[in-house]
Write a structure and sequence with these properties.
The chain is of the alpha+beta class. The protein has two domains: 3-35, no CATH class; 43-77. The protein has five helices and two strands. The protein has helices at 3-8, 10-18, 43-52, 59-71, 74-77, and strands spanning 23-27, 30-35. Strands 1-2 form a two-stranded antiparallel sheet. Strand 1 (23-27) and strand 2 form a beta hairpin. It starts with a helix and ends in a 6-residue tail after the last helix.
């Protein structure tokens, strides 16, 4: 798909990507970008990493993680329901 076409129909591009398609964007006949589904990172993987790393990370990191957890709203929490 040309960059111009992708720009003009970006919502349709996102619809295709959301359904699992990967789009190659070209400019002047050269590949310049690939748009594909976002990788998932289950919350349980992050939680397991933090559990394995307990006591090995500096205090600032632990404070930052705690602050991030407090800042997450319900909508974001639903993205990682197993966290």
């Amino acid at each position: 798909m040309s960059a111009t076409e992708a720009s003009r129909s970006f919502a349709a591009v996102l619809d295709e990507v959301e359904s699992g398609e990967t789009i190659v964007v070209t400019r002047g006949g050269r590949r310049v970008a690939v748009i594909g589904p976002a990788p998932t990172a289950p919350g349980r993987m992050v939680k397991a990493f933090l559990a394995r790393s307990a006591g090995k990370l500096d205090a600032d990191f632990e404070t930052d993680v705690a602050a991030a957890r407090e800042a997450v709203d319900d909508e974001m929490r639903n993205l990682w329901p197993d966290a």
